[in-house]
Amino acid sequence: MRGKMIEQIAITINSLTKTYKLYHHHRDRIKELLHPLRKVYHYDFHALSDFNITIGKGEVIGIIGQNGSGKSTLLKILASVVTPSSGSYKCNGRVTALLELGGGFNNETSGIENIYFLGGLQGYTKKEMQQRLQKILEFADIGVYADQPVHKYSSGMYVRLAFSIAINIDPDILIIDEALSVGDIRFQQKCFRKIKEFKEAGKTILFCSHNLSAVRDFCTRAIWLNKGRIVEQGNPIFISDRYNAFMTTNDPVLLEKTTPSIELDRFPEYFKLGEPVSSLSISWDKVDQHDSFGVGGAKIQCVSLYNVLKQSKVYTISGGEPIRLFIQLLATRKIDNPIIAITLNGRSGVPVFRISNHLFNQRLSFEIDIPTIIAADFTFPPIGNGRYTISLGILDITKNTRSEIHWIHDAIILEVSNPDNKYKMGTLLVIEEANIRVVSKFDS
Amino acid sequence: MSPNLIPELQKQTTNLINENMKYFKGLVAYILKIVKQRYIIRTLVIRDFQSRYLSSYIGLPWAFIQPAVYVFVIWFAFTFGLKAGSTSSGLPFTPWLLTGMIPWLFISQTMIVTCLAIPEYGYLIKKTALNIWLIPLIKIFSGLIIHITMILVIIILFVAFYHISPNIYWLQIFYYLFASFILLTGIAWLVSSVNVLIPDTSHIINIIATVLFWATPIVWPYGRLTGSLKYVALLNPFFYITEGYRYTFLEHRWFFEFTDMNIYFWIVTTIIFVSGAWIFKKLKPEFGDIL
């Protein structure tokens, strides 16, 4: 029984710590080494602090976190590219890693030679690699470029080849560091299908990604890192929601206080339209940390996004559901017929839609010096999976000039995540119903 | 004798043996790794060789043109400029100069290029689990290809023009190749790892190579040194190798005829090898961070 338990463990990590010594000058490193009184010239950067985890065989782990949270360091250590400062780790089985852009290609030699070489690094002979060559080239789909030196490759081809090598040399543990985001959607889908296959074959996969939909779709567990420590781990849907909440408020303490668990977050009293609402019962996200500008006169203080049907606060949307956005603002002067503008931004900042009360001929008036709560009800359109942000603005149109009283960029970060394939096509808009059929038949 | 002494002594001896066994096992594991990763080493050596020579128009001949011109200029300066083209033992000067120069060029060139070996392979160190210990070896092996070719060239020259015929002493070349390989491995570990931390190392090594070349008896006979100046030769452990090549090809003497030289060389080489390995091991974790 015990033996079996051990067999089931793929990776164990014990109090793993990585501290980078940072120096102001390259010279300081040697000064410190030679200093007779052992003067310290460096300051420490803790990339990972006292990291503990056990990963079972067949688990697919998604590691999420902001830039600099220690994701890459962790994966590099497991790929034995970086030596930890202290602590230990053990990987059972063959580990292949796909770190950042491609792994260990020699730019001067051809793709095929690189395949043989990287296979050799994993302990495969040329003959064993010959048997795999066809499969690797087929999956990488780089065509005639296989014989060309790697420096002629586009970044997409580079990653395709690297990924294809990594998966075709029978790893037990596959480590992928944010590499797949370079490939086009078709290749990404192909990779995810392959990852699924791996998952079913009982192999262990670790990948770090900013693509939360992928984490939700494929991972059995998500680990959220911040400043080199685990903030939370567990169900990928739950963890990515918490992470999105954190990205919106940028305040983990606030998150602890105001975000109740998804299931329990019910406030039925809000959803009776037209009733006054006490601001205390809404689970607010503060927005004062975000990029904002404006001439002043009113300020958006906090926001909150609710799913009307579920009657719960959400950061993840499947598309097509009724949404209510709460905005709490504080006006310090009277604004005549103000505008509340809500903009949804897609990838690379493309505006997806914008709504405002003026567009629907709705008139608002704010209280002065006491908070005003505004609710905006709309149906979230069916749009492709991905990350979106909502920018909010209070505008003033008087005497035919428009001025921003307060505008917040990316006040809310949300994820559209729908398991339906229609949402995964990488398109902005999703068509829910279509009928495609044969209407004519020609005899041959 | 106290009764505790013997078990104590035994314990110390076993400790010592265990300790030494650990290093011995490490060395054996290292050699096994070389054998196991021979494909990787071979590929890297060929690539190194190609990038050094084959990327130019003339290509491979450069590997020989440069040292040949170098040897010729030295020969010219000594024979016509300094009128010093003679050896104390009455051997013809040209073969004498060649047999010393060829191992020296191998050793000094390898020493200089290994300085920069680690950053050169940064793309592998940072992305794959390559055994970093092997990297300095690649430079040695790729230098060895040229070196062995040169040995064959001088053998042909000797047989064709100097009527020096092959003999049993020539087999010693394998011993001297082994000795220079061990010495160079130690040096390569040392300079390649220190150079990552202190980029000035490569300049220092260049100067050391120049000083050793002119200040120790490589292109001039050892016999010119008299009295306490004789010890200058000892500064250069490579003197053992260059002199050894002369015993092998010209002077018809066995390496074991010179006990003190052997002891001195192997002590120095062991110290360099062990300290090179120790320093490399200490600095290895830093490579990934610095590169």
- Quantity of strands of chain A, as a count: 20
- Oligomer description: heterodimer
Order of helices and strands of chain A: HEHEEHEEHHHEHEHEEHHEEEEEEEEEEE
Distance between the termini of chain B: 58 Å
Q: What Rg of chain B, in angstroms, do the CA atoms define?
A: 21 Å
How are the secondary structure elements laid out?
The complex is a heterodimer of chains A (444) and B (291).
Chain A: H1 2-7, E1 9-22, H2 26-34, E2 43-56, E3 60-64, H3 71-78, E4 86-91, E5 95-98, H4 111-121, H5 126-140, H6 155-168, E6 173-177, H7 185-200, E7 204-208, H8 212-218, E8 221-226, E9 229-234, H9 236-249, H10 252-258, E10 285-286, E11 292-293, E12 298-307, E13 312-313, E14 316-317, E15 322-331, E16 339-345, E17 351-356, E18 372-379, E19 386-398, E20 401-416
Parallel strand pairs in A: 3-7, 3-8, 5-6, 6-7, 14-20
Antiparallel strand pairs in A: 1-2, 1-4, 8-9, 10-12, 11-20, 12-13, 12-15, 15-18, 16-17, 16-19, 19-20
Helix pairs in contact in A: 4-5, 5-6
Chain B: H1 5-36, H2 38-54, H3 62-81, H4 93-114, H5 117-120, H6 122-125, H7 135-161, H8 172-197, H9 201-215, H10 238-251, H11 259-290
